[in-house]
Amino acid sequence: MTSVMPQSLADSNGFSHWPAQPGAKHAARKGQSCHAERSEASLHFFGNKCRDSFPDSLLPAAHGCYDISVPRQYRSTAPQAREPLRGSPLGSPADLGSTAQAVRTMFETVTPRYDFLNHFLSAGLDLYWRSVAARSLRAQLASPDSVALDLCCGTGDLAFALRRCAWGSVFAADFCRPMLARARQKAASHSRLVRMIGADALDLPLPDNSLDVVASAFGFRNLANYALGLREMMRVLRPGGCAVILEFSKVRWPVFGPMFRFYFAHVLPRVGDWISGAPGAYRYLHESASRFPDQETLAKFMRRAGFVDVRYRNLAGGVAALHCGAKPA
């Protein structure tokens, strides 16, 4: 039987509540619960890691929070200096905080039409691909003690696909407040609980070795630094746990490739910008996807980060690719 979240720490849609004041500590296994009184619409986003163990409820512990409107200040610049500064083309490549702020702001503007455009512009393939990603993890999700995270969850479609396959707990994390609010609304129509976390993918408020699955669908390419993102995925996975990245990639079909590239570069950005009312947002989609590592390069990055048994599967001839890797047991 899966663990039950204490009523004081979750609303009816599974939106997790954590301490609102910096320095407030979530209760450990034998401690008392600690939560902040706040309005229904208020969301708190945690930025400082906690290396404690999960409480019985499987809620991640946190030692602080930051307001989502404030540009993210990363805990340490030392790891950044040792990693190649490769990530989202937004913001400054030398400043992870400015890139994160630019990505967050852009997604805040497209939230109202985000789901419609995703499904319309992909002819519904985006939902099918998320389902493929979730089904590829059925073995890892079969245990009632399993814990899975949809990283950079957006409006939660991958989390809901994982929930349909999982016998254990499913979390969804993002640092964009409107996206998580939309995911919360959608969760009301799902009979099984998905717990929402406001958090930065490069600085998750989760203990080491705490998850069986970390999966990301069309969100990983928006990270300010891919190497740091892979490092964080490795940190929170348990030994033997699986990381899955579903992203746009390089089309391999010789005839379809040029046609898709024309559509992706010239048709999709114009239609997306027009319908979303956010000029430039869907041009960013093309730019970020075009600059994202191809299938073999991403697999190499994952191996360099320490993942083993790395493999990938092309979807629609390489329009998207599903990469899987495991943390050494």
Describe the fold and architecture.
The protein has 329 residues and is an alpha/beta fold. It is 36% helix and 16% strand. Strands 1-4-3-2-5-6-8-7 form an 8-stranded mixed sheet, sandwiched between helices. It has a domain of 213 residues: Rossmann fold. Helix 7 links the parallel strand 5 and strand 6. The two termini are 25 Å apart.
Feature tags:
Rossmann fold, disordered N terminus, alpha/beta, 329 residues, 10 helices
- The helix-strand sequence is EHHHHEHEHEEHEHHHEE
Question: Which CATH class of the domain at 88-253 and 280-326?
Answer: Alpha Beta
Helical segment count:
10
Write down the overall geometry.
globular
What fraction of residues sit in β-strands?
15-25%
Please state the structural category: alpha/beta
- What distance separates the N and C termini? 25 Å
What order do the strands of the largest sheet run in, or round the barrel if closed? 1-4-3-2-5-6-8-7
Number of strands: 8
Uncertain residue segments:
1-82
Major beta-sheet overview: 8 strands, mixed
State the helical fraction. Answer: 25-40%
